[in-house]
Amino acid sequence: MDVNSTKVSNHLSSAIAFAGKTRVRYMILLVLFVITTINYADRAVISIAGTPMSKELGLDAVSMGYVFSAFSWAYVIGQLPGGWFLDRFGSKLIYTLSIFFWSFFTITQGFIGFFSTGIAITMLFVLRFMVGLSEAPSFPANSRIVSAWFPTKERGMASAIFNSAQYFATVIFAPIMGWLTSSYGWKSAFVIMGLIGIVLCGVWVKTIYGPKDHPRVNQAELDYLEQGGALVNLDQAREGSAKNAEVKWGYLKQLLTNRMTVGIYTAQYCLNTLTYFFLTWFPVYLVKERGMSILKAGFVASLPALCGFMGGILGGLISDYLLRRGKSLSVARKTPIVIGMLLSTSMIICNYVKVDWLIVSIMALAFFGKGIGALGWAVVSDTSPKEIGGLSGGLFNTFGNLAGITTPIIIGYILKATGSFNGALIFVGANAFMVILCYLLIVGEIKRVELKANS
């Protein structure tokens, strides 16, 4: 039998073996998508409620910038500990605690208005900080779960879907939060969103398991996952090696001195500058710079987010399609990233137009591009060392979310100095271009990092 006949025979054998496989992984992905939608909605409540809240509490642009950044200070601080907890105790337990506590601290923000101004501002900063600390393990856990449940050829799409929840959150909840804020006051938006999270925490507990623990998965699907490169033994390996629970911090040094990973981390910082502009200052831009009402801003903000959601799905489809067509992993991941970031730089054009519908259209195009290019978590799933998947994701997210600290503050100072968002849009657009430079000039070949044993 010749080589081609052998390949065909092997392919047919695999197809027959996998024909009756379950598709539990798609239910897992759906739950990840829903939870991540609430995750981002709870982050973004303050951007919708920001204008009336700042008036009531007497916050200027710089003060609001620092309050906006409080989430990210904690989110960054919590990344490496969160990644360690994931590797030590598993995704399900740590994520459950994460959902419950970020929802609880979201609810409590709705009650700060009952205190005096000075105390309320301090409490707001502290509570935003606690939301960030509670959410810290969420995206490393998402990446870890996708690595366990999806083969390499489906991982780009799976990562794009859970990552696109950040846009879907705005599509669904920005109008709702705008309506709540306009009709019942800004406090109501925090309380309602937090309660939704508490309910979904119970759903999470009942539906999420590792591949080998899930009661509905069959052996055919497990074989399909394992042969496709899914890390199905991720949590079993953790449970079977408690004596190795101490963190191998030396591994972090290897990641921080690896040109590929440093390029990926730097690119994620620049990309998240766009994310945090849309999460924090964009609704304020619509109200203060473009004169929209809070209710209208809530609905208008959902339009670019809808385009970002569609772009996110498209980016994953393009990447996985290129893989199926035989392109290298590097080409498959980098192509959507470069195209998407080029589109995102278009937001700078908003400085030169005055018509509202055209501004919204340009922002929608920029957000669409950001969605296409937001494949960082797929790249992390492709490159993270098997030994420290959670810790690697935490390190990636630490770099990325430093932008959550710097972006709101830098934009706050730009507004104070210039009285305009023009400089802010140039700053954000320039970061989109930096993502392109990182992936084309620094990252090089995308491949899984092989760690050297620590001495």
Mean pLDDT, nearest integer? Answer: 80
Give the overall form. Answer: globular
Individual helix count: 19
Helix/strand order:
HHHHHHHHHHHHHHHHHHH
Low-confidence stretches: 1-17, 239-247
Strand content: under 5%
| Helix-strand makeup class | mainly alpha
Characterization of this structure:
- This protein is an all-alpha fold and 455 residues long.
- The chain is built from 19 helices and no strands.
- The protein is globular, with a radius of gyration of 22 Å.
- The termini are far apart.
Keywords for this structure?
single chain; 455 residues; mainly alpha
Provide a quick synopsis of the model.
The chain has 455 residues and is mainly α. The protein is 79% helix and 0% strand. The N terminus is likely disordered.
Question: Helix and strand layout, with pairings?
Answer:
Elements: H1 3-18, H2 24-57, H3 61-77, H4 79-89, H5 91-109, H6 117-135, H7 138-149, H8 152-184, H9 186-207, H10 219-227, H11 234-239, H12 250-256, H13 259-289, H14 294-324, H15 329-344, H16 356-373, H17 376-383, H18 389-418, H19 422-443
Helix pairs in contact: 2-6, 2-7, 2-8, 2-9, 2-13, 3-6, 3-18, 4-5, 4-18, 5-6, 5-7, 5-9, 7-8, 7-17, 7-18, 8-9, 8-14, 8-17, 13-14, 13-17, 13-18, 13-19, 14-15, 14-16, 15-16, 15-19, 18-19
